[in-house]
Each structure stands twice: as C-alpha cells, then as structure tokens.
C-alpha cells in the first residue's frame, strides 16, 4: 500500500506540471518505508532531508504553530510548514534536517479559516479518512497569502499523470481514485495485457483522452483498449505488434494513432471508420506498399512510413489520396518513384525520400511540391516542377543534371553538394528569391556572374571544386557568407570587399592566393567582415596592410602561409580581434601591439620560429594560448595572470626552461602543457626508434573538451606501442575514463593469450564504465603495434579496433589506407539495416532514438540492442612502405579527406607539429566542434635490424676477442627484452635505475659452469624462446653507503668501481645487438677470461661483477625472452648519471655491469625461490659493512686475473670495427 500511496503522490504532483517532476526530497520516498496509514494519503518517512533551497517547487514556507486533527485532543506545537507543489509538508523544527515529514495532498481538498482562533487556517485532504492540519500565523497578511496560494492548489483537478520508466507491471490501484485523469503516460514499463491490474482496467477511466503505452513489449494489441471510447491519442510504438484487432474501429474519437517500431504488414479495414484520425504513424514496420486504407481516412494529411520495405512508389496512388499533403518515406528500399499516368497531383507539398536506392527521380507531376528531400541516394538525374518549389535538398548523390521547370520563382534554398555537377544550373541563376546555394564538392570550373551578382543570394558555398577564378563584381550585392575553400584560386575579385559590404564571413583557405583585394577606396572602410579564413595559401607579408581595411574582424586565420613578420602598426588597428591563428608560418615574434587587442581570447601561433614570449598575459579576456613548436627560451610574465586564462601550450620548445617561480604562477591555469623533463631513469635506448608520436586536441568553440587521447610509445614489453582516441561528443566523462583504463585492460587481455584480445578489450572497457556508461557514450579507436603472437620471429603488426566515428588511417607509400570502419547511420548501410530490423526509431536528423548518429559505441547501455560495443577489428603487418599512422575523431575527418591529411603531414619531421597542423586545418576549414588528431611516425625497415646474422660484429673489450661469441642477456629496452621472474622479490631491483642487456659476458649457471651463447637478435627479428631461463636484474642493493649514524653520507669512500646512490648500488648495463656472420662458438674455457669468484648469496646465486664496455649503442637492441617466466620490471632502464643525496647529477665515466644468470629454478621450491614477492626495501642483496673490504679485494683480483688471461691469448686477426649507430 505504501508504494501505491507514493504513486498517487506522484500523480497529484503532475497536476501542477506535466513535465516537471516532484523535488528530489519527495521522490526519495519511493525508496524509503516508514509509518503510514493504509487508508490515508498522508505518507511519513524518516531520513535526512535536503536543504530547503533544493526544493525547486516550494511556494511558501515558514515556522508556525501547528495542530493535527479536527478535535482538540492534540496540542499545538511549533513545526516547519512548506507548501510545495500540490502538497503541504509538515516537519519537526528541532529535527527538520533528520526527522520525519508529513505530506498532505491538497488537490481536491479544502482550505478554511478558523473562527475560534485568529489568523489560523485548516488544511484538509480529500478522501473518506481525510487528514487535517491547523496552522496558526502571526499576521493577517501572512495568513491571507497562504490562503490565496493554498486555495489555488486545492482548486486544481488532477488530469495528467506521468509514470514512465518506473518498471511497473500493473496499473496502480490508487490511480482510479481520481476520475479526472485525461493524460496517462506509461511508457517504458512492463505492463501486462491481461490479468489483475493489467491494461484492461484502464477502461475504468471515464475521461481518459491520451494514453502512451510505447516500449512495453506487449506482443499483441490489448483489445480492452478499444473500449475506451474517449481516447483521442494512442501511442503503441515499439511493442512488437504484428496485427491490429478489428475492434480498433470502436475508437471513433481517435485523432492520433502511433504504431511506429512494430512488425505490421497490413491494417484492418475497420480502421477506415476512424474519420477523425489525422495523424497515423507507421514508420519502421514491415509494409511493402502504401496501405489502401489511407484512402478512406479523409482527414489524414501525412503518411509517415519511414523505415519500411517499400521498393516502388507509384505516384498515381497519391492522386487517389487528395487529402495527403506530406509523405515521409525515408530509409526504405525505394528503387523507383514515378507516375504511370500524366495526371498531376496538387495536394502533396512535402516529400522526404532520403536514404533510399533511387537512381533516377521524376516528380514533375507534383505541381504543388514545395520541399523535396532526396539526400543520400544514387541519383544521376533529377526532374521536378518549379511552380511551388521553395527548397530542394539533394546532397550526396551522383547528379550530373538537375531539371526544374518552370523557373522556381519561390525557391529560397538549393543544396546540391557532393555530386558530379560541372556547372551551376541555368534555372538556379534565374531564381529571383534564392538566398542559400550550396554547390560544394562538385566539379565546377567556373562560376556564373549571375550567381555572384545575385541580388537575393546571401550564402554561397562553392568549396571543394576546381574554380580558377571568379567573375568580377559590378554591382553591390547582399552576400553575407562566401565559402571558396579548396579551389585553385590565385586571386579574388578586386571589388569583392567594396561591392559586398554586407559580407560577414569569407573562407578562402586551401587555395593559391598570393594577395588580397583592397577593402577601401578612400581613407575610411565600410567593410563589415568579421570572420576571415585564409589558411593554407601562399600569402606573404604584403597582405597584412590590406587587413587593416577590416576593422571589425573578430576571427582571423592566416595559418600555413609564408608570413615572416606581422607589422606592429597593423596589428594595433585590429582592436575587435577575438581569435588569431598564425600557425605554420616563419614568424620570429608576435608584435607587442597585440596588447591593443583587448578582446582577444585565443592566440594560436604554433610551428613558427618565435623566440620571445608575446605580451599577451596582460589581456583581460585571454583564454587560450598555443605557442608550441617554437624557439622560446624565456618567458616574461606578470606577477598575476588573468583569471580567464584556461590553457597554455608550451610544448615543443626545446630551449625553454621554466623556473619554479614561473610554474607557481602558472599553477592556477586549468591546462598547462609543457615538455616533461628528461628523467634520470629514462634510457633513450628504451625510447623506440621505430615510432614517435604527437597529439593535439582543440576545443574549438565548445566550452569543454570532450576528446581524450592515449599514447604509449613503450608498452608491455617495451618494444610495443598503444595509441587511442576517444570522443564523447558532448560528454567529457567517458573519454577520460577510457583514457585511464583501456591500456590496462588491453594488457590484461594480451596476457590471456586470446586471439580475440582486441574485441575483449572493448567489451571489458564497456562493462567497466559502470553507471557512467548507462546514458553516456563514446566513440573509440585503439591501435596496438606488436609482434605476431603466433610467430615471434615476425616483424611488427598493427591491430586496430574501433567503434563510433573515430578513425585510424595508415600512410603506405604516400597513400592513405583506412584501417577502421565508420559506424554511423549515414555511412554504414549494414548498420542502418540492422538498426531498422531491430525496430529502433531513427529520427529525421538521422539519430537512433534521437540520441546519437553512431550505431556502435562504448556506453549508451540503455540503447541496447540498437547501440552495441562490439568493435571492428583489423590487423595488418607493417612494412618498409609504412610512413605514418593518423588517428582522428569525427570532426577531423569531416573537414579533411584522408589524402589531404596524409599529404599535409608526411613531409614534416615533428609529429607534434604535424598533429597541431591537422587540427588547425580542420578549424580553418569550418570545424567549430572539438577536434583531436594524433600522428605516429613509423620507421619500420630492415635498416633498423641489428642482428648478428646480418654480418655486423662489434669488437669485444679488453681480453675478449672480437670474434668471440658472447651471451646476450635479454633486455627490457627492446620489444622482446628480458623481464624478471615472478618468483624473485621485486625488492632486489632498484626502482630508480634500470638496465639493458650486455653482450660482454657469458651465461653462468648455478653451478658456475658456462652456457653457450645464443644468437643475438634485434626487435625486428626476435629469437624464439629458449628453454634456458636467464635473468638480468637492472640494479641490486649490493653495498650500503651509509654512515654509522644511519644517514646518507657523500663523504664516505664508496667501493671502488661501484657507483652507489643512497643505500642502493646502481649498475648501468648496455646492450649491443650487433650483426655478425659466420661466427662460431669458442671452447667454453676460452669464453671466460677470469675465474674470479663472485659474491654468492644463500641461495647459491653467483653474482659476477665485470667492468662494462665503454661503447654505448642506444640504437642497437636485442635479447631473448621467456614469456612464461619473465615479468615486466619498471626499473629496467639505463642510468646516465649518479644522483647524489643533494640532488646533483654527476656524469658517469665508467660503470659496472651486474649479471645474475640461473639456468632453471630448483625443482623443489624452497628457500629464496619459495619466498613470496615483497616490496620491502630491506629484502635486498645486502653486503654487510665488514665485508666491503673483501669485496674490493675480490674485484681487484678479478681484474688482475683478466689482464693476465688477455696476455696469454694468441693475437687474433683484427677485424674492421663496425658499429650499429643511427647514422
């Protein structure tokens, strides 16, 4: 009963507003249970109420004396009284924030003045056991105000109830207490067609006029609904209906009947008796032809049959339906639409034939047609009547000719973009009222002078054509927007800015302009130009003075031109400038007069030669500053930055060093982008020479950035990479979540050794979105560069997976290769067909249920099964011809073609500058949304190989012969580098330094015997896993460098040859993956030059310390890995300097190499091998202080023995020294 009472409270509240719900404080009662009367409408519950200001529908409130009941048995008490919506809420003043509240519904009740007590009102609810509360006020004015407001609420009549999305299975019984309900919304529930509390009980409402039962999965039409003769509106969409009952003819008052998203193939004849039916929704059903019953529905004015199975449209059928004015046949399978007779139709004024398969369309028989939509067909020819034509939309076809007769005198809008038209139709030039003309993405070679000189045309879009020149302007024109981008123009008409005084926006980007026409003939300019886009031209400094003739400029884009300087005197005159883009030029400085642009909020000047930071931090409205990829070396900033500054990008300035004081001043900036300082623990050898990346994200004119990127150039085992991009459209939560979690999920799936690891990564990431992914969604693309799991000796492969509209493009031999799939209704016919078969509602703006145009997303769980998280996965081996990989979101690829994007950046050397350039181009081409771009430069070639089998050998140091084969210990710096066994304690390895494998020493077993050396391989040609387990710790705590008092001391003498940092010995190890051919193994006795004893721990591991070769080869890589036993160590990297306790860095002259090799783990895991992994620093290889002298002696003895052994060896033939370097 409690739930029913709350539902009634919900119903009563809807009387106040049909669209606004009751406050959160009141709705929370649905999840609580407290003391309540089974017959009373008054509900009580106990919980912490919200603040009073959160009750957005509070009418009146105050603390007054209150008495409950009509009798004098109750005492007066001070209570908090609230008139909220249609209810009176009474709560304890003392426990108002933690006590219980009483709710008294007032609709249908009464409010009376008490005669026995001054300034007192009696509030009474409706019902047999109505409750009454007496409230005493202090003043007459206050009493009258409450009386007036409460009387208005009492006089209300309940007529609208919204119970949608409540998971109801039956109609609440208390709804029937009110017979005034006229509107009932039960959408998105689980209502039953029969049984107790089923839809059959709805006939008890005597005045019900509107009923919404969509999305209830009924399966069949409830016959009982036909008994509600008062119905005028009935919505039965998305219920899986296959037929309608004949009793439907009883609903004689029905005016609107919605049956979208079902499986209907026909309509009953009885439907023809509904002579008041004016709206009939039949979209997304299984009709193969127009229902004949529509001829009898004489009041019906629109046929809404989008998403059905029509293949032929006989226009003569519409002649028999003279009452039909609008026809919507979107998303059908229409292949033919023509009239079999010459009889004309004078009733149809609107027709929508979008997304069909028409190749030829002749609707000239529709003499009254005013608006025609035929986008996204395969039309080559189009013929229609121009008597009444006002708007024609025929984009995305294959049109070569468009015939309209007679000349459309009423035509105002003509859109023919993305076709194959070679000229503007003559009839379009004669249209006297044409205001908007879109002829972009065609084959135009010239523009008629009648079009450019039209006295009615206000917006002309002719971008992406082959225009080489424009006709001269002789008269003043009302043109406001002119788009000329992506043509072959070398100049603009001389009188353009003088004759087009109303011109507000001009986009002439991506042409070959070398100069600009003057904007004034005298001293004063009348130009009203506000937006000027001139990116990607051949403009020089000589065009700058012309810009002064446009004093009203707000947005100026001059990126990617040949500008070398911007005169200070000219910039100072552009006082209204708000956005300035000067990227990709040769500027050395930004004039100081930029301080005169007081309204400037965005300055983008990346990829120049600017060395001095411009004086822009004094501007009061500055928000975004991008000075990346320049030559900045210092920044002079004020003590206080403007509060409006949100983003400052200083990346790519190699000579810029920011002091701590400067960073403190920049701390309040929301987004500060600077280059990360090189870490001491970062080895350039770990930074892959096979790829490098750059990322750029720009918010555009949006208030927030909803695009995030993932870039890991060293992933998993080191020589792998992961790149991704995520676009949340209008939400920023999901892209950030995916950015933080998707790489970890991928790593987990890879370790499962599942061939479906990429698909599983997307599905697991979708699941981990949790509640955030219920109503929010995000497009995603993920690229994984790796070796073939089935063949470790193979070269690199690229696996790409994506959902939504984020795409990945590979540049191979200078040509784009699309690796992803666009999952949108407009570009993927298979997905559109699937969505239609699953009976989703596709709105006129091509969005699933009006939410998104994508058919596959991460998130948007509530739109399942229409929106799926299953990705498209493709894999391709990388070759020498692969130059770069491009990732971008929807906004990028909407404004840049694949070929243009590849051509724009393939010759650049900096991937960051390349990514910035792509985003800048997209914005200059008209993108106003969030745009993100990622550029990954690839260098996959045999030239990177450093295997021995390719014939290059590296001479060994000291007593080692250059022809001696030496064991290459696996390294984490390469893609197949050695990793540490999970059985070993992580505390053995220093977290501050790492190592790469050395090729100087032979493997030593647990018993001290020598193991044969395996062939050295690089990351391009890894060696198959061997059965020998080898381990190379990057650093171990070998000796404690602490004073007696336990504190670090730099005064103590360290062990000779051992570099210590704090309490840990840091050992630098290098890898030489050299090429050698014809090398043979020497006898084991000759492979090791000395038998000096090593330090042995309790487990029998022999630690051999030898002097490292002084030759470092950061470009060479190699090693062996055992996947089943090796685990990744974050500390496996080279140390380049000694970090003293005071923080200073000392460069290394000579370093040591620490090698510990075990052939196999003991069969019985005892002692050290049985110990669990620990992260405690105490659990490390430690040599007591009293043994340090012994260590010194052993090391000295080892060096002497090695020198003696070298002298005994016979001189070998000296080979030419060859080193594998970057050159």
TrEMBL record:
Its cofactor is Mn(2+). The keyword Transmembrane helix does not apply. It catalyses: O-phospho-L-threonyl-[protein] + H2O = L-threonyl-[protein] + phosphate. SMART domains: LRR_BAC, LRR_TYP, PP2Cc. It is found in: Cytoplasm; Membrane; Nucleus. InterPro entries: Leu-rich_rpt, Leu-rich_rpt_typical-subtyp, LRR_dom_sf, LRR_domain-containing, PPM-type-like_dom_sf, PPM-type_phosphatase-like_dom. It comes from Phasianus colchicus (Common pheasant). The keyword Ribonucleoprotein does not apply. It holds the Pfam family LRR_8. Protein phosphatase involved in regulation of Akt and PKC signaling. Mediates dephosphorylation in the C-terminal domain hydrophobic motif of members of the AGC Ser/Thr protein kinase family; specifically acts on 'Ser-473' of AKT1, 'Ser-660' of PRKCB isoform beta-II and 'Ser-657' of PRKCA. Akt regulates the balance between cell survival and apoptosis through a cascade that primarily alters the function of transcription factors that regulate pro- and antiapoptotic genes. Dephosphorylation of 'Ser-473' of Akt triggers apoptosis and decreases cell proliferation. GO terms for cellular component: cytoplasm; membrane; nucleus. Residues 692-938 form the PPM-type phosphatase domain. GO terms for molecular function: metal ion binding; protein serine/threonine phosphatase activity. Residues 1031-1046 have a biased composition (Polar residues). Residues 960-980, 1031-1057, 1192-1223 are annotated as: Disordered. Keywords: Cytoplasm, Hydrolase, Leucine-rich repeat, Manganese, Membrane, Metal-binding, Nucleus, Phosphoprotein, Protein phosphatase, Repeat. It is a peripheral membrane protein. This is PH domain leucine-rich repeat-containing protein phosphatase 2. Residues 1192-1211 have a biased composition (Basic and acidic residues).
């Amino acid at each position: 009963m409690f739930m029913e009472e709350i539902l009634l409270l919900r119903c009563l509240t809807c009387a106040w507003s049909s669209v606004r719900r009751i406050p959160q404080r009141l709705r929370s009662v649905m999840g609580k249970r407290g003391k309540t009367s089974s017959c009373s409408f008054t509900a009580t519950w106990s919980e912490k109420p919200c603040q009073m200001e959160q009750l957005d529908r509070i009418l009146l409130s105050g603390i007054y004396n209150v008495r409950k009941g009509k009798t004098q048995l109750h005492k007066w008490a001070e209570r908090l009284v609230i008139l909220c919506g249609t209810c009176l809420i009474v709560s304890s003043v003392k426990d108002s924030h933690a006590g219980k509240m009483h709710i008294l519904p007032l609709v249908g009740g009464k409010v009376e003045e008490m005669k026995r007590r001054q300034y007192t009102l009696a509030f009474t609810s409706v019902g047999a056991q109505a409750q009454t509360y007496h409230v005493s006020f202090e003043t007459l004015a206050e009493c009258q105000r409450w009386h007036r407001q409460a009387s208005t609420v009492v006089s209300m009549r309940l007529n609208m109830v919204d119970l949608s999305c409540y998971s109801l299975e039956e109609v609440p019984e208390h709804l029937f207490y009110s017979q005034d309900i006229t509107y009932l919304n039960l959408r998105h529930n689980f209502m039953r067609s029969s049984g107790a509390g089923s839809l059959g009980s709805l006939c008890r409402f005597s005045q019900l006029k509107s009923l919404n039962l969509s999305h209830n999965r009924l399966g069949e039409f409830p016959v009982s609904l036909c008994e509600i003769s008062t119905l005028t509106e009935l919505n039965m969409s998305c219920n899986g209906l296959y037929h309608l009952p004949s009793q439907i003819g009883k609903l004689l008052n029905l005016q609107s009947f919605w049956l979208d998203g079902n499986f209907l193939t026909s309509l009953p004849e009885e439907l023809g008796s509904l002579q008041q039916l004016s709206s009939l929704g039949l979209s997304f059903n299984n009709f193969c032809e127009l229902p004949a019953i529509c001829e009898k529905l004489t009041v019906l004015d629109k046929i809404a049959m989008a998403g059905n199975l029509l293949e032929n449209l006989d226009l003569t059928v519409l002649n028999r339906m003279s009452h039909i004015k609008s026809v919507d046949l979107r998303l059908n399978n229409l292949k033919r639409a023509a009239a079999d007779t010459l009889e004309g139709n004078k009733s149809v004024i609107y027709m929508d034939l979008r997304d069909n398969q028409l190749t030829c369309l002749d609707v000239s028989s529709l003499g009254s047609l005013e608006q025609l939509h035929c986008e996204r067909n395969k039309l080559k020819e189009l013929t229609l009547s121009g008597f009444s034509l006002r708007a024609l939309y025929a984009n995305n076809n294959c049109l070569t000719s468009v015939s309209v007769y007679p000349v459309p005198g009423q035509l105002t809008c003509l859109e023919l973009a993305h076709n194959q038209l070679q000229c503007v139709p003559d009839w379009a030039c004669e249209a006297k009222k044409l205001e908007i003309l879109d002829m972009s993405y065609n084959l135009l070679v010239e523009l008629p002078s009648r079009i450019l000189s039209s006295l009615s045309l206000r917006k002309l879009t002719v971008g992406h054509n082959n225009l080489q020149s424009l006709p001269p302007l002789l008269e003043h024109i009302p043109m406001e927007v002119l788009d000329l981008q992506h043509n072959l123009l070398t100049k603009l008409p001389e009188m353009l800015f003088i004759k087009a005084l109303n011109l507000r926006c001009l986009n002439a980007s991506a042409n070959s302009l070398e100069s600009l026409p003057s904007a004034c003939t005298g001293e004063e300019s009348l130009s009203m130009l506000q937006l000027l886009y001139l990116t990607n031209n051949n403009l020089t400094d000589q065009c700058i003075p012309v810009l002064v003739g446009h004093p009203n400029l707000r947005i100026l884009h001059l990126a990617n031109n040949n500008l070398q300087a911007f005169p200070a005197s000219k910039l100072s005159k552009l006082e209204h400038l708000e956005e300035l883009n000067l990227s990709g030029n040769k500027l050395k400085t930004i004039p100081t007069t930029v301080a005169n642009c007081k309204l400037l909020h965005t300055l983008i000047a990346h990829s120049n030669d600017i060395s001095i930071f411009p004086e822009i931090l004094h501007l009061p409205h500055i928000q975004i500053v991008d000075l990346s990829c320049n030559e900045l070396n210092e920044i002079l900033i004020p003590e206080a930055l403007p509060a409006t500054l949100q983003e400052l990008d200083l990346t790519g300035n190699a000579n810029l060093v920011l002091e701590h004081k400067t960073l403190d001043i920049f701390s309040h900036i929301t987004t500060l982008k600077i280059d990360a300082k090189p870490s001491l623990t970062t080895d350039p050898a770990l930074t892959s020479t096979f790829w490098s990346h750059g990322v750029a994200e720009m918010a555009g004119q949006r208030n927030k950035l909803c695009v995030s990127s993932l870039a890991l150039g060293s992933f998993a085992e080191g020589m792998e990479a992961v790149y991704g991009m995520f676009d949340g459209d209008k939400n920023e939560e999901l892209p950030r979540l995916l950015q933080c979690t998707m790489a970890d999920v991928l790593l987990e799936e890879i370790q499962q050794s599942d061939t479906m690891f990429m698909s599983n990564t997307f599905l697991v990431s979708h699941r981990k979105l949790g509640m955030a992914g219920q109503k929010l969604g995000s497009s995603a693309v993920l690229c994984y560069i790796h070796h073939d799991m089935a063949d470790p000796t193979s070269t690199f492969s690229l696996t790409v997976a994506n959902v939504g509209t984020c795409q990945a493009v590979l540049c191979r031999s200078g040509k784009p290769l699309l690796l992803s799939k666009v999952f949108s209704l407009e570009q993927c016919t298979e997905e559109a067909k699937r969505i239609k078969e699953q009976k989703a509602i596709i709105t006129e703006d091509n969005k699933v249920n009006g939410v998104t145009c994508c058919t596959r997303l991460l998130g948007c769980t509530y739109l399942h099964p229409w929106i799926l998280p299953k990705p498209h996965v493709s894999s391709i081996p990388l070759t020498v011809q692969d130059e770069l990989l491009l990732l971008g979101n929807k906004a990028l690829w909407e404004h840049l073609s694949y070929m243009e994007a590849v051509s724009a950046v393939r010759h650049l050397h900096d991937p960051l500058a390349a990514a910035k350039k792509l985003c800048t181009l997209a914005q200059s081409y008209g993108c106003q949304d969030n745009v993100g771009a990622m550029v990954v430069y690839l260098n996959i070639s045999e030239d990177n190989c450093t295997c021995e089998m390719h014939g290059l050998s590296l001479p060994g140091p000291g007593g080692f012969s250059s022809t001696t084969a030496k064991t290459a210990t696996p390294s984490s710096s390469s893609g197949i580098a050695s990793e540490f066994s999970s059985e070993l304690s992580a505390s053995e390895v220093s977290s501050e330094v790492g190592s790469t494998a050395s090729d100087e020493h032979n493997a030593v077993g647990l018993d001290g015997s020598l193991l044969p050396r395996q062939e050295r391989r690089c990351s391009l040609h890894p060696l198959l896993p061997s059965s020998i387990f080898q381990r190379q710790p990057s650093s171990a705590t070998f000796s404690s460098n602490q004073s007696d008092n336990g504190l670090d001391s730099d005064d103590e003498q360290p062990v000779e040859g051992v570099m210590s940092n704090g309490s840990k010995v840091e050992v630098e190890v290098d890898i030489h993956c050299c090429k050698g051919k014809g090398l043979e193994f020497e006898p084991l006795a000759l492979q090791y030059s000395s038998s000096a004893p090593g330090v042995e721990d309790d487990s029998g591991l022999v630690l051999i310390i030898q002097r490292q070769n002084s030759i470092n080869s950061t470009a060479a890589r190699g090693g062996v890995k055992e996947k089943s036993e090796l685990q990744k160590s974050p500390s496996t990297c080279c140390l380049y300097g000694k970090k003293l306790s005071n923080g200073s860095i000392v460069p290394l002259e000579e370093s040591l190499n620490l090698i510990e090799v075990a052939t196999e783990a003991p069969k019985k895991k005892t002692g050290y091998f049985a110990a669990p992994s620990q992260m405690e620093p105490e659990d490390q290889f430690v040599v007591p202080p009293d043994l340090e002298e012994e260590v010194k002696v052993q090391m000295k003895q080892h060096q002497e023995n090695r020198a003696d052994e070298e002298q005994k060896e016979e001189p070998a033939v000296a080979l030419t020294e060859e080193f594998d370097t970057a050159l």
